[in-house]
Design a protein that fits this description.
Blueprint: H1 2-20, E1 23-30, E2 36-39, E3 44-49, E4 54-63, E5 67-71, E6 75-79, E7 83-89, H2 91-117, H3 125-143, E8 146-150, E9 155-162
Antiparallel strand pairs: 1-2, 1-9, 3-4, 3-7, 4-5, 5-6, 7-8
């Protein structure tokens, strides 16, 4: 008898908590493919608003049925219909770009210091080839760390209301 009461009490508590913790999610999907990107409240977001042609960066402050709020210092409301493009950030290419960029500057400094210590000409072709190629790899990786999802016929923004029932 006691086990049934605990079971029903825990079941009731689960249903109450599931309704309290329901949340809305912004989904950016490419029509006809399985590519979907999900954004929740508190996630970093970068988007272009078509009406004012403004680039907004910041955290996703709140999500409503047809309006989202993006905040860097104060919340700015954006209608879903006004979103022209969403920029998806990829963390690993960006980290790689930063590490390789710092490495190219470090190798340039180490080679220059080595040439100064050994009384050789400071700037040599090998110095520019090595550090320049690393800097080029860094710039290429940095350019690939962000993807523009242009909201038109191929990409679509949807607001999902997720509830655990």
């Amino acid at each position: 008898m006691m086990d049934r009461k605990r079971f029903f009490a825990s079941l009731l508590l689960f249903f109450i908590l599931s309704h309290l913790y329901s949340q809305k999610t912004m989904m950016v999907e490419k029509i006809g493919t399985s590519r979907k990107y999900f954004y929740h409240t508190g996630d970093y977001l970068k988007l272009r608003v078509s009406k004012e042609d403004t680039l907004l960066k910041g955290k996703l402050w709140s999500i409503h049925d047809s309006v989202i709020s993006v905040a860097e210092l104060r919340p700015f409301d954006v209608r879903i219909a006004d979103i022209h493009a969403v920029y998806k950030q990829f963390a690993y290419p960006k980290k790689f770009a930063k590490i390789v960029g710092i490495g190219s500057v470090g190798i340039f400094a180490i080679i220059a210091l080595n040439h100064l210590i050994n009384n050789e000409p400071v700037f040599t072709p090998d110095m520019f080839i090595i550090s320049g190629s690393l800097l080029g790899a860094s710039l290429i990786s940095f350019s690939l760390s962000e993807k523009k999802c242009k909201i038109d016929g191929r990409w679509k923004v949807k607001i999902l209301d997720i509830e655990l029932n």
